[in-house]
């Protein structure tokens, strides 16, 4: 990713509060989340449940509103949903009274209202075949499709409207491991072909490493933050079979697991207790470039050794 | 033998069994030669009126159905004409109710405020027997025909209104979000997402309504008089023609079943599986 080009998405000091049920002070889910997404980049966001990942995605989609902070897309503030930002929901969100093809056509027609019916159909069918559906399956209704096939339709619909940014909310969360693998491969292939910018939520560390250029790590809520941005230094094209043999795979994986198991808890506490976190961009970390392999336990120390400008003192003490 | 083959056979056995018992339990009418002079004078009727046997009803049915549309003046019209009058009233009142209930129900379903504000009115008006409106309708409208249609209107509006509002309010948020992320206009969202999503619930309301309307029209026509299947039943009762009464009861059942079957078909066509 070239640093010179303007980012597609610029998220600045995003904060979301929910009114608490007992009418006391509102609950701050996350605070001052700031990050950028470059054009053509595949960014995953990982964090524990309740840290507000889905809320961030919904704000990017325009389905939710931030309490404060802005999201700029090509330097324009976003407000409300738009066809420029396609969404794939975890529960597929297909319209059950329409066939798979009609569901995709629904999206295409919304995007290109001037197209003729045959052109809409052709475009929809092309995208269904891209995710391995067609030859009869397109005529079936969602209830007649397996979970994996439904998610394929949903992905095809999102790609077919050719949005500038594609938002995936744990798209594979409800699928079994085998199906998940196949669809991950398909997603990578389609992403390679289209150069689509993707922002995706996942709980699965391996999935994130396989798919993304960069992983944003969120600390635990409340007062969650986008704490770090981990660059995945593994060349593409990647495949599920080979990626685990790459020398950078385990350093990155250990780093991520370590963050999720221990460090994510402490960062938010620190953030709540002290200091102004405004305009604090997540630290960029490149565990793949660490000189020697790490064990999980000393991952953060090594990270500091190699990446002097990397972790701040706050984060380091927070980790201990 | 599958259950689908056994069931109709059992139905036929029950039908003929019950008709047999009914037929045999009805004493036959003496033929004219054996009557006393007194009996002849009384028109052949015994002292106790008797329910006619099924054979008499079948004969009556064949006779009526072979010429359903004759018209011999106000009190002697074919069964087809009477049914047509009733259907006309039911469908007119029902369509008017649908024209108001469906859009209004849609609005109520879309707006939680309207839902809450109108709920007390609906809850009070809904349980009122439609016939209770009859005197008021007759006084205001001053036309018995239109009053009957109004009674049908008022009885069929509630299930449609409530089910439409309920169905629209219950459309899954995910589907509405799909409409939002695709930048659908309000109108398009209503017709392309919410209407098909709520259609099965709305159709259930329409089916309940047509059932109630058909129940109510018989009673309304008994009150209003003049024409229609309800009037026909009452008129034949006044004529002491129980054969015709039973025959028309059966006709009411068959027409009601056909109306219900029609809506059930439409409902199946619009049903979707999640």
How is this structure best described in words?
The complex is a heterodimer of chains A (320) and B (274). Chain A has one domain (9-84, 163-319): P-loop containing nucleotide triphosphate hydrolases (Rossmann fold), CATH 3.40.50. Chain A starts with 8 loop residues before the first strand and ends with a helix. With 320 residues, chain A is of the alpha/beta class. Helix content of chain A is 37%, strand content 19%. In chain A, the strands form two sheets. Chain A has a seven-stranded mixed beta sheet, with helices on both faces. Chain A has a four-stranded antiparallel beta sheet with strand order 2-1-4-5, with helices on one face. In chain A, strand 1 (9-18) and strand 2 form a beta hairpin. In chain A, helix 2 crosses helix 3 (117-130) and helix 2 packs parallel to helix 4. With 274 residues, chain B is mainly alpha-helical. Chain B has a domain at 84-224: MetI-like (MetI-like fold, Orthogonal Bundle). Helix content of chain B is 76%, strand content 0%. Chain B has eleven helices and no strands. Chain B has helices at residues 3-25, 37-41, 54-66, 79-110, 112-125, 134-141, 144-169, 173-181, 186-224, 229-238, 242-270. Chain B is elongated. The mean pLDDT of chain B is 90. Chain A binds chain B through residues 61-63, 80-83, 85-87, 89, 91, 93, 95-97, 106-107, 110-111, 141, 143, 161, and chain B through 174-175, 177-178, 180-184, 192-193, 196-197, 199, 270, 272-274.
Oligomeric composition of the shown chains: heterodimer
In order across it, which strands form the biggest sheet of chain A? 6-7-8-3-9-10-11
Largest sheet features of chain A: 7 strands, mixed
Average pLDDT rating of chain B: 90
Q: Strand-and-helix sequence of chain B, N→C? A: HHHHHHHHHHH
Choose one word for the global shape of chain B: elongated
- The N- to C-terminal Cα distance of chain A equals 33 Å
CATH class of the domain at 84-224 in chain B: Mainly Alpha
Instruction: Quickly give the CATH architecture of the domain at 84-224 in chain B.
Output: Orthogonal Bundle
CATH top level label of chain A = Alpha Beta
Count of DSSP-assigned helices of chain A: 10
Q: Radius of gyration of chain A from the CA trace?
A: 20 Å
Tell me what portion of residues of chain B adopts beta-strand conformation. under 5%
**How many individual β-strands of chain B?**
0
């Amino acid at each position: 990713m070239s640093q010179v080009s303007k980012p597609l998405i610029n998220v600045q000091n995003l904060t979301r509060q929910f009114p608490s049920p007992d009418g006391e002070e509102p609950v701050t889910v996350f605070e001052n989340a700031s990050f950028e997404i470059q054009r053509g980049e595949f960014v995953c966001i990982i964090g524990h449940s309740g840290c507000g990942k889905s809320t961030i995605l919904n704000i990017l989609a325009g389905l939710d509103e931030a309490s404060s902070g802005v999201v700029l897309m090509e330097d324009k503030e976003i407000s409300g949903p738009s066809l420029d930002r396609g969404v794939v929901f975890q529960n597929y969100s297909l319209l059950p009274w329409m066939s798979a093809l009609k569901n995709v056509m629904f999206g295409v027609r919304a995007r290109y209202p001037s197209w003729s019916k045959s052109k809409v159909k052709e475009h929809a069918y092309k995208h269904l075949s891209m995710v391995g559906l067609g030859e009869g399956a397109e005529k079936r209704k969602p209830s007649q499709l397996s979970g994996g096939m439904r998610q394929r339709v949903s992905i095809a619909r999102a790609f077919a409207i050719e949005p500038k940014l594609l938002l995936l909310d744990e798209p594979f969360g409800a699928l079994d491991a085998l199906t998940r693998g196949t669809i991950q491969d398909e997603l990578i292939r389609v992403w390679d072909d289209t150069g689509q910018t993707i922002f995706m939520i996942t709980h699965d560390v391996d999935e994130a490493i396989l798919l993304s250029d960069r992983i944003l790590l969120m600390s635990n809520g409340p007062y969650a933050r986008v704490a770090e941005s981990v660059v995945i230094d593994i060349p593409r094209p990647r495949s599920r079979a080979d990626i685990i043999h790459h020398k950078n795979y385990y350093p990155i994986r250990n780093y991520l697991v370590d963050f999720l198991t221990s460090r994510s808890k402490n960062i938010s506490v620190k953030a709540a207790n002290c200091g102004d976190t405004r305009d604090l961009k997540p630290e960029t970390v490149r565990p793949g470039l660490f000189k020697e392999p790490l064990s999980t336990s000393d991952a953060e120390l090594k990270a500091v050794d190699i990446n002097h400008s990397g972790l701040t003192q706050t984060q380091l003490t927070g980790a201990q | 033998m599958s259950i689908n083959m056994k069931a109709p056979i059992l139905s036929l056995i029950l039908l003929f069994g019950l008709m047999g018992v009914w037929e045999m339990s009805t004493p036959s009418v003496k033929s004219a030669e054996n009557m006393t002079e007194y009996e002849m004078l009384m028109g052949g009727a015994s002292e106790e009126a008797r329910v006619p046997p099924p054979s008499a009803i079948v004969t009556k049915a064949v006779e009526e159905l072979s010429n359903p549309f004759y018209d011999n003046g106000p009190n002697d019209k074919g069964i087809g004409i009477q049914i047509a009058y009733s259907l006309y009233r039911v469908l007119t009142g029902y369509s008017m109710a649908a024209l108001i209930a469906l859009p209004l129900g849609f609005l109520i379903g879309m707006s939680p405020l309207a839902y809450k504000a109108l709920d007390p009115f609906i809850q009070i008006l809904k349980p009122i027997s439609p016939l209770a409106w009859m005197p008021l309708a007759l006084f205001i409208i001053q036309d018995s025909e239109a009053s009957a249609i109004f009674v049908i209107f008022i009885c069929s509006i509630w299930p449609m209104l409530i089910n439409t509002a309920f169905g629209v309010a219950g459309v899954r948020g995910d589907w509405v979000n799909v409409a939002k992320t695709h930048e659908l206009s309000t109108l398009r969202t209503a017709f392309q997402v919410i209407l098909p999503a709520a259609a099965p619930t709305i159709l259930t309301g329409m089916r309940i309504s047509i059932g109630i309307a058909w129940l109510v029209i018989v009673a309304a026509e008994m009150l209003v008089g003049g024409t229609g299947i309800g009037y026909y039943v009452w008129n034949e009762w006044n004529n002491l023609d129980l054969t015709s009464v039973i025959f028309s009861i059966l006709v009411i059942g068959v027409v009601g079943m056909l109306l219900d079957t029609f809506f059930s078909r439409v409902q199946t066509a619009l049903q979707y599986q999640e």
